[in-house]
Write a structure and sequence with these properties.
- This protein is mainly alpha-helical.
- The chain is built from eight helices and no strands.
- The radius of gyration is 21 Å and the shape is elongated.
Length: 205
Amino acid sequence: MVSSRFEELEKRIVELRQCFLPKEFDPTGLYEETVYEHTRAFRVLAHAEFESFIEDRVIEVVDEAVSNWKTDGSISTSLLAIMAYRESVPPMPGSLSEAAAKPDKYPKLEARIDAARTDLHRYVRNQNHGIKEKNLLRLLLPVGIQEAEIDSAWLSATETWATARGDAAHKGAKMQVRPDPQNELKTVNLVLDGFRDLDEQMQSK
């Protein structure tokens, strides 16, 4: 079962398809220049929706994991991953008196977990810029998705498509290959299917 956030994403991709791509595709693959322009717009906007989706879902997962731990002490895979993948960890105190005297230097367990959540929030909202492989790993591993659970073929296809999106967003039309709208839709649906799989996996983390 997918999340409500994924359902929003799926609906949005359908809306973009209806707004920007031809209702029927030409078997010759030849179109007016405006169709290619609209296809580039579809690519850029679909990419933005994918990026927004995965960022929102990562935040949802980490917030739920921390909330459940505070409520009933349950330790989820995502909670373990949040702590395991935190890049900076405060030192441990040498004594109880030292811990009591310097709570900022030696935070308690709850404060450490809150800090790890804050760090991930900050990265997701301020530092992530895309859905290439390096971006996705930096988002997915800290919420408990393991390397073996990520489809490498899908990841490679997403990387290629995200690179093409960068060209569409940052290069003039004369520097780009004309995107075929039918192939573009197929690729976007492939990327969408991969995010569906990840969404379902995150439900259990």
